[in-house]
Amino acid sequence: MTDPTKLDAWGALSQLARTDGQKHLRDLFAEDEGRFERFSYEAAGLFLDASKTRVTPAVTDALLALAEQAGVEKKRRGMFSGEAINGTEGRAVLHVALRDNRTGKYSVDGEDILPGILDVRERMKAFTDAVTSGERKGATGKPLTTVVNIGIGGSDLGPVMVTEALRPYHLEGREVHYVSNVDGTHLSEVLRQVDPETTLFCIASKTFTTQETMTNAQSARDWFLKSGRSEADIAKHFVALSTNHQATSEFGIDSDNVFGFWDWVGGRYSLWSAIGLPIALTVGWDAFEDLLSGAHAMDRHFEEAPAAENLPMMMGLIGLWHRTFLDMPAVACLPYDQSLLRLPAYLQQADMESNGKGRRTDGSKVDYETGPIVFGEPGTNGQHAFYQLIHQGTTEMLCEFIAPAVSHNPLGDHHEKLLANFLAQPEALMVGVTEEEAFSQLKEQGESDEEANRLKGHKAFPGNRPSISILMQKLTPETLGALIALYEHKIFVQGAVWGVNSYDQFGVELGKVLAKPILAELKGEADADHDRSTSGLIARIRSLRAG
Ligand code: F6P
Predict the structure, then answer these.
(1) Cα dihedral: 107, 110, 116, 117 (round 10)
(2) Coil, strand or helix: which one is 412?
(3) Which of 41, 78, 323, 342 could make an SS bond with 311 (beta carbons 3.0 to 4.6 A apart)?
(4) Identical fold at 4-70+305-423+468-504 and 111-289?
(5) Nearest CA to 265 among 479, 99, 126?
(6) 501 and 521 in contact (C-beta within 8 Å)?
(7) pLDDT digits (tens, 9 = 90+) for 252-274
C-alpha cells in the first residue's frame, strides 16, 4: 500500500488547501455563474449539490487525480470481483451482490455466490409472505403480528433506520420493536408491550456470540417460556439471522428457522441480507425488493459512471478534501425528513466503524486525518440544538442536508416550511453576515451606534461553512436504498484513498475483553488488578449496590 501523502496529487491538494481552500464561498459563487451545474451530480433518483462546498475546479481535478493515483477504481473492481479486500480478516466484501441478480458476476474462492444468495432470498420471501398473510401462526394458532428484533450494531441500526424511514409502507396491523441495549430496561420495556402468543422474535447476530444480543435473546426466551409456552413452541416464535449455524442450533433454534448469510457481508453492511428480515416482515416483500433495487441502481452507477460524474466518488472525494486537507473534524448528517430520524445513528456506525482507523492496510501508521466524527439529528430539531456551533462556533465542519421534495404526509404548509429551512440553513452557512452588515441591520432596527457596535460581532456569521444538499423526489424504498448505497460507496472511496481497511473493526475489541474480568468482579466471583480509577469505581459501585 502506497503512502498517499507521497502521491503527486496529495502534494497538489496540500498546496490548494492554502489557496483555493481558503476562498470564501460568496466569492466562488460570484466568480463562476456555472458553479451550481458544475458541482452537482445525479444518479438513481438522487440529486447532490456540492456547489456550497469549498471546492474549485482545480480542487476537483486534483481530487480526481488523487483517486486515480491511489487506485480507487482498481480497488473498486477488486471489491466487485470478490477480492479479499478486507485483508486483516482475509475476507471479500460483497454486500453489493446481495442486491443483484446477475449470475456469474460475483464469486468467492472461484465459486458463484448468487445461487446461495437467491436461495436465502427465496426462503425470506416465503417466510415473510407466510407471516404477513397470517398463514404462519404462533403456537396457540394466533397470527404473528408482532416482530421483536434482538440485535446490536449492524444487526440493529440498519433495520431500525430503514423500518423507521419506510413507515408509510408499513403493512397494516404489523408491529415491530428493536431491542439492542444490554440494559435490561430496553428488553423489559418492549416485553411489557407485546403478547407472547402473537410475537415472533428475530435473533439477529452475524456471530451469534455478541454479549448484548445473547443476553437479551436468553432473557426473551426465558420470558416466553415463563408465559406458559413450552420448549417445543420456540420453533414457532424464534428465528435466527446469522452466519453461525452451530451457535444458533445450540441456542435451540432449528435449522428451518435460521436465515443465513456469509462472512463476506460486513455487519454494518448487512441490512440487505437475512439481517433485513424484520424490515421485510414490516413493509412486505415487494417493498424490501424495491429497497434492494434502489441500492443496486446506485451500485451500477458507482461501477460504471466516469469518475467525474460519479456521485459516490465525488461525494467521497469532496468529503475527504474537507476532512483531510481542510482539517474539518466532523460531518453533520441533517435529514429534513422525520422518518430519517435514525439515519445519523446508522451512519455513525457505517462511517466511524469503517474509517475510524489509524493504520494503512499494510500496518503502517497514517499521519493525516482519516474518518470524521459523524453526528446529527433531523431538521428542524437540530436547528434548535447544535446549529449555533455550526454557524458561529470555532469548529468548521461539513454539513450534509437531505430532503425529499414531496412528503408522504402532506399537512397544510408543513412541508413547504420544512423545505424552506432545508434551503435556508445551507444558504445561511454559506453567505454568513459580515460585521458591517450586522451593524447596518442593527441600525435599521433602531439601535444606537454604541449598541450596534457592541452587538455587531455577536450578530455576525463568518459564513463560508460548507454543505452538501441531497434531494430526492420522495422517500421511497428505491430512493432510500440508493441513499444508503451512496453512503456505503462514499465510505469505500474515502477508505480507498486513505489506504485503510474500511471493513474490519478491531477497535471495538479491547473494551469487550476488559469487561469480562470486571463482570466477574461485579458478580463477586473474582478479583483483578486495575488502574486506581477503575478499582475505585468498582468499589464505589459495590458499596452503592450494597445499599
Ligand atoms: O460493534 C462491533 C460489531 O462487531 C459490529 O461490527 C457488528 O455490527 C456488531 O458488533 C454486532 O455483531 P453481531 O451481528 O455479530 O452480533
Answers:
(1) -10
(2) coil
(3) 41
(4) yes
(5) 99
(6) no
(7) 998 999 999 999 999 999 999 99
CA dist 420 to 128, 338, 340, 433, Å? 40, 15, 18, 19
43 CB less than 6 Å from ligand 1? no
Task: Tell me the three cell numbers of residue 249.
Answer: 442450533
pTM score above 0.95 = yes
The 8-class DSSP code of residue 267 comes to G
Question: Which cell goes with 88?
Answer: 486483516
Catalytic one among 384, 414, 417, 516?
A: 384
Measured CA to CA in angstroms, residue 145 lies from 172, 216, 332 at distances of: 10, 21, 37
Nearest to 175 by CA among 262, 283, 68: 283
153 lines ligand 1 (CB under 6 A): yes
Active site residue 353: yes
CA angle 38, 43, 48 (to 5 degrees): 50
| pLDDT (tens digit per residue) in 424-479 | 999 999 999 999 999 999 999 999 999 999 999 999 999 999 999 999 999 999 99
Q: Does domain 111-289 have CATH number 3.40.50.10490?
A: yes
State yes or no: is 408 an active-site residue: no
CATH T-level assignment (fold) for domain 4-70+305-423+468-504: Rossmann fold (3.40.50)
Structural domain boundaries of the chain?
A: 4-70+305-423+468-504, 111-289, 507-546
Cα→Cα distances 209→145, 156, 249, 505, Å? 28, 15, 13, 16
CA dist., res. 101 & res. 108, Å (int): 16
Pocket test for ligand 1, best of 88, 179, 210 (most atoms within 8 A of CB): 210
Catalytic residue among 353, 396, 478, 488: 353
Q: What is the DSSP string of 55-94?
A: --HHHHHHHHHHHHHTTHHHHHHHHHTT---BTTTTB---
